[in-house]
Amino acid sequence: MFDLKDPFNVIIGGVGGQGNVLASRILGEILIGQGYVITIGETYGASQRGGSVMSHLRISKKEPFSPLIPQGQCDLLIALEPVEALRILAPYGKPDVLTLLNTRPIHPIDVISGDATYPEVSKVIAKVEQLSLRVWVLNATEIALEMGDPIFSNIVMLGALSTIQVLPVERQAFEEVARDLLPSRSLMENLRAFDRGREMVKEIPSKKVPLA
Amino acid sequence: MRSIAQNTPGKVVLLMGNEAIARGALEAGVKVCAGYPGNPSSEIIGSLAEVANELGLHVEWSINEKVALEIAAGASFSGLRSLCAMKQNGLNVASDFLLNLNLTGCKAGLVIVVADDPAGISSSNEEDSRLFAKIGDLPLLEPAHFQEAKEMAREGFSISEALGLPVLIRSVTRVSHARGNVTLGELPHSNPKPAFDLAQPRLAFPPLPNHKVLHEKFKKARTMFETSSFNVYRGPEKPEVTIITSGSGYLYSCEAVFNLNAKERVGILKMGTTWPLPEEFLLKHLRRSDQFLFIEEVDPFLENNVKEVFAQHCMELGVKRFFGKANQMIPDVGELTPEIVTSALQALLAIPYTPGPEAYNRTASEALAEVVPPRALSFCAGCPHRATYWAIKTALALDGREGIVLGDIGCYSLGVGASGFFQMKTLHAMGSGVGLACGLGQLDRFGLDQPVIALCGDSTFYHAAMPALANATYNSANFLLLLLDNSATAMTGFQPHPGTGTTATGSPAPILDLQTLCQSLGAKVEVVDPFDIEGTIAAILKMVRMVKGVKALIFKRECALVSGRRQKKNYQVEIDPERCLGDSCGCNRLCTRVFKCPGLRWDPKKKKAQIDEAICNGCGVCVEICPASAIRREAQ
Amino acid sequence: MSRGLKGLVEKVLSQGLCTSCGACLSLCPYLRSWQGRVVKVHDCSLEDGRCFAYCPRTEFNFDGIEKKGVHQPYQHAEIGSFRRVLMARAKDSTWRERAQSGGTVSALIDFAIRKKVIDAAILTLRDGDSSPKGQIVMDREDILNHAGSSYVSGPTLEALHRGPWEGEEKIGVVGLPCQVQAVSKMRASTLEKKTPIDKIRLMIGLFCTWALEDEPFRDFLKKRIGNWPALKLEITPPPERLLKIHTTGGLYIVPVDEIRPFIRKGCEVCSDMTAELADISAGTVEGIDGWNTVIVRSDQGEKLFKEAEAEGIIESQPLPMEHLNHLKEASLFKKERAVKNFRNIE
């Protein structure tokens, strides 16, 4: 069923503090369990402090690839924040990139201060659509907030990922990895977040003609 | 939770480079591990600390890297394998001991892991620590990927024992802070009893005979490396170009060859043992090609050393062309990327290559320029440092004498920018703000009339500022030390330190109280809570106005990320739009435009400030600064 | 040009022209005062701000201001518009003992409150060691505590913006000429009034030749008199010109020339010695102890003064012509000096 391009390149991007490192690790663990060779490049340290962050995942059946994806070679973008999707697509996108987007903005301090403006989310989605072959959206942060803690939004996004049939991510495999990686007291909530993501994700119906 | 201690040989697991190094050490039977946190090295000791109790190891966060290395050496002298881990700046701190330790040698395997930070992603510099191997005639290994990181760490102990020398393993961000498949090996079960052999003292003095012994060991290392499996050639017999690479450069090189589909034309010589270089092995590969491209981070270390070997044998080798940093084919600062390697190789091979169709790239770049706002780093929502700098700025403005804030590296280094209201004016090594203050604090006799203010974090204070403070008292320097005590080594991942009451492995530890310490070092000390903004401003003003002597003001408030892990919000914060003055005279958006906490939002349509529920951590400080009492908080 | 905080910094604060009147304080979080200095803490981006509009050291148009102030055309005479100039003093000797000279101002404020001409008054608190500051007072005891001069200016008017106000409808202000000017500018400003400026019903101005920088002068006093609290300061008329400092530890005397270095630069460009925009202005009478020179200027001032006289609160005498002439000379001298100094700055 999953005859993945080799290497298949995934970027999980967002804002420091959104949990992209954990999301990439969980995804990596799920895939390594299926015999893939994984390389993940992560942003750590100072970039965590409110800056843009990315994890690069290289998925291959053969060998490890470099921890940074070459420009123009991202196959799947999981964006935890709308404008971050565009920031990543500019160097890494390509006409047939698939994008899974959390539509909830996090305002950068330049926007908070009024030195810059944050675009209308609908406008961002339209641009992402123009730059992607297929786009799926959900407000993962809102879902997580409804559950009582925005910390779950990365797991909501992984749940969404499991339904769009791009990568072999099954709920069962997630649960196994979650048992290993996440604190046991929050396991049930994380599973619930995963399921909410599965329920809430929607594909944006569109032309499906790649931008040459 | 998954640990690096599972004894499941042959199992393939996803490990971070740092975890792979830690695992390699475990597979070598390491017993004592010490280090000081610093990106990108922190998870080496961090992951070992997690399994220390289970495996019966001693793992500690030491006060600084020099002490850490001395601890590891002590274990090695006594017959226990030991590991010491640090970042590049840390090796500078440890280097005084290191450059004596090379003369005395060691007994049980001693591996020193240094994780460099090319481009200084979370560092004050991007120093290439490999040069220390050269200074100290020490064997140097550079892992290129995760499996190798583990193997080198394990093998490093045997090499160290065979040579009687500590072995340096140099990692970089894209190895240490990346994850990949690692096949686990066996965990040994040996419990050697440590003993220090009094008949074998470890004396660096007298240096001459020791230096001679060191050079003999060095020669032996060169011979050993001739057959090392860490040096690998991959490519055709007679390539047009041979890439000579080490560390992170290897996977980028593979990527470039893959991208350009140039497997038939390019060879890749991956060097794992980069000092001393195995000469015969190199010569064999130098004969293969006439063109060589060096791919490495950060300095042209391999490049220069290979050229040195070439120079010795140039009559035999004939004309060769070398490309790399020396001829600007590869940038001589910053991190490598797949693009850098691809474009260099593409130029050498004359293969056209552009990433993606041009129409797409143009549309994407236009979208970026048109709608995407910049995202600058800032202190987290609820970070005590924001309140601290707010108070510093206000107090120094009121004082009116252009007080100079001398800082150093840590989360609070963001004080150089908008998030810290541009207050920090010097940034160098750990604790250097306090040392600089010792100097500037003597200049009043020459007419300096600006108040001198040093600033450092709690972990930094233990690490490097205590001697400077003692010096200040001894030599009667005049300055105010602002000690930002957030009860964690926050920037590197919240590691405990001597002030937190716990050790690396979670055992209780006596607290070295900062207030008492500063007092005993001769400073007049006061403690404030930076969330009490007006009280903090008053305290800074009072102390900066005390004319003579060393004063220390401790800002006590836990890191917001640490407290956020333990508890939910302190306050539920709300903004009353009726009271919010917005951008009108009397406020002009103080909270959003000036204070700039990421937990706030500005609604340009309604012209009101708002709370971002997903970001606000409920510290309530914005309540204190709002001139209209429009922000309200309710204790949770 | 910015008519907001940026302009205020450029034209006033960075030029050292601030008189620390307090008109710009407690309006916003960007300006604060400490040890008698007004300090900009953060930048404000507004092009129009009350801080600039209210400042007596930004552009000042007496004619324009007049309409909202004394309600008659401004006279460019030596001591401004007035109805009469006379000598007066409080009849009750308590006022005279605690206050400067004749105690007229304190007694008038007390009377105005008792007569409900005003509900409260903003006076300047000078409590020895700390900087002068504005306070809202409502009774005799408070007024007594605020009497006297320290020759140091302080941000009195901050109290108008800061409050706390508890529904007072009519407010009186006693201030230096620059403070009276600031209040006049506040009344005339077209910017939204967010503080009870429109509730000011009475302005009593105090004669002022110059004021001192708070912090350096306090350091000087400390060096000269030690830690005794200064109870009262007075300057004797020329040719003697001595600063007499009454302390709990005795009397200290300092030649005025020694404190001249502490005169605020902002006072050197001030052209108003007699608080020309006040309802009533008052000062000393040179050479005659225990009496005030009083200039009654507005209808309101006249009404209050007459009633106070009628009820035996105040007694008055004509001011000898030579004193009036001398007052005019001194005021004119200050104007000339201000013009000269201002040209130097421009």
What does this structure look like?
The complex is a heterotrimer of chains A (212), B (636) and C (346). Chain A is 39% helix and 18% strand. Chain A is of the alpha/beta class. Chain A has one domain: Pyruvate-ferredoxin Oxidoreductase, domain 3 (3-Layer(aba) Sandwich), CATH 3.40.920.10. The mean pLDDT of chain A is 93. In chain B, 38% of the residues lie in helices and 18% in strands. The model of chain B has no long low-confidence stretch (mean pLDDT 96). By secondary structure, chain B is α/β, with parallel strands linked by helices. Chain B contains 22 helices and 24 strands. In chain C, strand 9 and strand 10 form a beta hairpin. In chain C, strands 5-4-6-7-11-12-3-13 form an 8-stranded mixed β-sheet. In chain C, strands 8-9-10 form a 3-stranded antiparallel β-sheet, with no helix packed on it. Chain C has a two-stranded antiparallel sheet with strand order 1-2. Chain C is of the alpha+beta class and 346 residues long. Chains in contact: A-B, B-C. At the A-B interface, helix 1, strand 2, helix 2, helix 3 and helix 4 of A face strand 1, helix 7, strand 8, helix 9 and helix 13 of B. Strand 2 of chain A pairs antiparallel with strand 8 of chain B, so a sheet runs across the interface.
**CATH class bucket of chain A:** Alpha Beta
Number of helices of chain A: 8
Largest sheet of chain B: 7 strands, mixed
Question: Which range best describes the helical content of chain A: under 10%, 10-25%, 25-40%, 40-55%, 55-70% or over 70%?
Answer: 25-40%
Order of helices and strands of chain A: EHEEEHEHHEHHHHE
Strand order in the sheet with the most strands of chain A: 2-3-1-4-5-6-7
Question: Which residue ranges of chain A are poorly predicted, with pLDDT under 50 across at least 5 consecutive positions?
Answer: none
The order of strands across the largest sheet of chain B is: 3-2-4-5-7-6-12
- In CATH terms, the superfamily of the largest domain in chain B is Thiamin diphosphate (ThDP)-binding fold, Pyr/PP domains
What Rg of chain B do the Cα atoms give? 27 Å
Alpha-carbon distance between the two ends of chain B: 30 Å
CATH superfamily of chain A: Pyruvate-ferredoxin oxidoreductase, PFOR, domain III
Morphology call of chain A: globular
CATH C-level of the largest domain in chain B: Alpha Beta
Whole-number tally of structural domains of chain A: 1
- Overall spatial form of chain B: globular
Helical region count of chain B?
Answer: 22
- CATH architectural category of chain A: 3-Layer(aba) Sandwich
Coarse structural class of chain B: alpha/beta
Number of strands of chain B: 24
